[in-house]
Every structure is written in structure tokens, then in C-alpha cells.
């Protein structure tokens, strides 16, 4: 069960946004990721609980941020309920999308488990609903993913396969690179792996 800590930074000026303390593991029904986020001063900011089925589809999502809450799942696309800090108002949403997205590295891992790309795969288009911090506002957008390189690195626990993905936001044309080993993000825009207690779990193969 990989367990560790990511540091999160602003995408534009690299200002520290805090840390995400996580653990994740494959299970009989798929994969689960649980984390707590803290501010640079150590205050609690929110949490993520994401469970995927064996095909990489989100069967349960629960997000907390600034007293806002989102619960979601794959249902006729993706469906969610967003609750305000008072708990008095809840709004439902449904979009013909493939997955959820957001600040957490969990969503990058989830997309790789959904897409199951190989270096021979063509660029693959995916529609996601992104929940933006801090109020978890939903935004729908299209991305393009390609696995451009996959390399084995020697470690004390055997070879570690590091996958390099190129991700494009189709609405802006922005492109960036994501490096992932199994179910751990090594580096991505705004994300750095600071500490890892146990090796990543291998990524699923068909």
C-alpha cells in the first residue's frame, strides 16, 4: 500500500499551496485513494476519498474543501451532489463525461487506470468534470492523453516502470507532462512527490 506525501504548488508562480498526505491501494474491486490536505502552515484544508472499479471508473468520490462537499460516482456519465458549507443547499449535476478531475494527484492516477494507454496507443480524448479549489465548483472540459515513453529504472525492490504522459487541455491548447510510476505521481504541474514509504503498486495491464 503506497503511502506518502505530495507538495502542491500554484501552477503559475509556484507558490506553495500545502501538502497532501495519502495512501492508496489496489483491492478486489479496483483501486482506492484516501488523503488529507493541509495548508503551508499545517492547517487542515480538505480531504479526498476516491474509489475506482476494475475498469478505472469512479464508483465513489467524496471531496471536502473549505467546508464544501462533493459526493459523486459514474452514473449515466458522471453524477454528483455538491453541498454548501451551511449544509442547507445541495445541487445535483450530471454530465456525459468519463471521469472526475481536480487538484489531487489521485485524479491523474485514476485517468491512467481508466485509459490503459500503451506507447502504441493513439492520443486519446477524454471528457472530465473538474472540481476547482476551494469551493469545489464543477467545470467540464476535454483533455487528450498520450503515453509517450515508458522506462524501467532499477531499484532495491526490482525494476520500477516510469510512464511519461503528455496531457493537452483541448479548450486552451495547453500541454504538459506527467510522470507516473504505478499508482504514484512522481511529478506533474503543481505536484511534487516529497516522500514515499512503500513502493508503488504496478499499473494494471489488460
Keywords for this entry:
1 helix, mainly beta, single chain, 15-stranded mixed β-sheet
Structure characterization notes:
It is a single chain. The chain has 206 residues and is mainly beta. The chain has one domain. 5% of the residues lie in helices and 59% in strands. The chain has one helix spanning 106-115; strands spanning 3-9, 16-27, 30-38, 44-53, 58-65, 68-74, 78-83, 90-95, 99-101, 124-132, 137-153, 160-169, 175-181, 184-188, 191-196. The protein has a 15-stranded mixed β-sheet with strand order 8-7-6-5-4-3-2-1-15-14-13-12-11-10-9, covered by helices on one side. It is globular, with a radius of gyration of 16 Å. The mean pLDDT is 93.
Summarize the structure.
It is built from one helix and 15 strands; from the N terminus they run E-E-E-E-E-E-E-E-E-H-E-E-E-E-E-E. The chain has 206 residues and is mainly β. Helices cover 5% and strands 59% of the residues.
